[in-house]
């Protein structure tokens, strides 16, 4: 039987559609490009040409079908390919870290804007893949950035991304339950975090890709989704320089609650910033 790229795409799309994958055609095409090391331009030119059936091509077909099978099990696309683009940079990801989202770019872009031309000392709490810390270091040329996570496995991913995108040095990575392992004398100009903020009960209703395959440590914000914000606001004060700033990613409906935590803790200049979709996405504040 002869194959074409088009016939393989149709085959993969059908499998993913039957599995309930929302963007079945798009995901099948992405995996096809990954397996055959091609792009949209070459696909359009070659899609109806019969594929030679030498060993290399047959191995690529097997690889494609294997990836389609994984995606049909609702394993996230980025975990299958092992990569995710964020802020124009390519990050390695696996099942131990939250897959970077475009929403989080709003958080990074705001800090880059607010500290353009500055060299703030930054703490990225719950660093995960390191996407925030690395983006600030590489794009903002920040020279002193620390990433913290409770997960050894997540820190291993972050370390791999640091080496790939920054080389040696540039970011300090620390295993810690929030501020537990941070020295009492350490001070930062900026504390940034995309903490777990989804209420536990809500997680049950999320898409299988998130609920079943992304790390619960990075998702579960406890009963009301605010557990980690409370800890970060109250404990973070001790680690901020005077006039230091805190930046949090939030859920679309958490702006008022998180702003209230800042007010109660004595912070000032509280701002709520929307993402590209017009939803509340970041709350930031300054220590008086």
UniProtKB/TrEMBL annotation:
The keyword DNA repair does not apply. Substrate binds at residues 194-197. GO terms for molecular function: nucleic acid binding; peptide chain release factor N(5)-glutamine methyltransferase activity. InterPro entries: DNA_methylase_N6_adenine_CS, HemK-like, N5-glutamine_MTase, PrmC_N, RF_methyltr_PrmC, SAM-dependent_MTases_sf, Small_mtfrase_dom. It comes from the Bacteria. Residues 106-197 form the Methyltransferase small domain. S-adenosyl-L-methionine binds at residues 149, 194. It catalyses: L-glutaminyl-[peptide chain release factor] + S-adenosyl-L-methionine = N(5)-methyl-L-glutaminyl-[peptide chain release factor] + S-adenosyl-L-homocysteine + H(+). Pfam families: MTS, PrmC_N. Its EC number is 2.1.1.297. The keyword S-adenosyl-L-methionine applies. Transmembrane segments: none annotated. Residues 8-82 form the Release factor glutamine methyltransferase N-terminal domain. GO terms for biological process: methylation. Keywords: Methyltransferase, S-adenosyl-L-methionine, Transferase. Belongs to the protein N5-glutamine methyltransferase family. PrmC subfamily. Methylates the class 1 translation termination release factors RF1/PrfA and RF2/PrfB on the glutamine residue of the universally conserved GGQ motif. This is Release factor glutamine methyltransferase. It comes from Lacrimispora algidixylanolytica.
């Amino acid at each position: 039987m002869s194959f074409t790229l088009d016939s393989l795409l149709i085959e993969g799309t059908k499998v993913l559609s039957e599995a309930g994958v929302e963007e079945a055609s798009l995901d099948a095409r992405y995996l096809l490009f990954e397996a055959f090391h091609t792009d949209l331009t070459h696909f359009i030119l070659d899609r109806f040409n019969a594929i030679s059936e030498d060993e290399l091509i047959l191995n690529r077909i097997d690889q494609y079908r294997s990836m389609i099978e994984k995606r049909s099990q609702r394993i996230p696309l980025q975990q299958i390919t092992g990569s995710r683009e964020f802020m124009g940079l390519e990050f390695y990801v696996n099942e131990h870290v939250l897959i970077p989202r475009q929403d989080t770019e709003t958080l990074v872009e705001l800090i880059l804007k607010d500290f353009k031309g500055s060299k703030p000392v930054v703490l990225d709490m719950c660093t995960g893949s390191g996407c925030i810390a690395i983006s600030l270091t590489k794009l903002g040329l920040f020279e002193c950035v620390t990433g913290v996570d409770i997960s050894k496995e997540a820190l291993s991913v972050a370390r791999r991304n640091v080496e790939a995108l920054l080389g040696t040095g540039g970011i300090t990575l620390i295993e810690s339950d929030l501020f537990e392992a941070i020295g009492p004398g350490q001070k930062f100009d900026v504390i940034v975090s995309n903490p777990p903020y989804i209420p536990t009960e809500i997680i049950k209703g999320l898409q299988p890709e998130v609920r079943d395959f992304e790390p619960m440590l990075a998702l579960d914000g406890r009963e009301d989704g605010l557990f980690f914000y409370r800890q970060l606001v109250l404990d973070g004060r001790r680690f901020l320089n005077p006039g230091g700033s805190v930046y949090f990613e939030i859920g679309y409906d958490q702006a008022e609650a998180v702003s209230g935590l800042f007010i109660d803790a004595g912070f000032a200049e509280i701002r709520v910033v929307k993402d590209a979709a017009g939803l509340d996405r970041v709350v930031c504040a300054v220590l008086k």
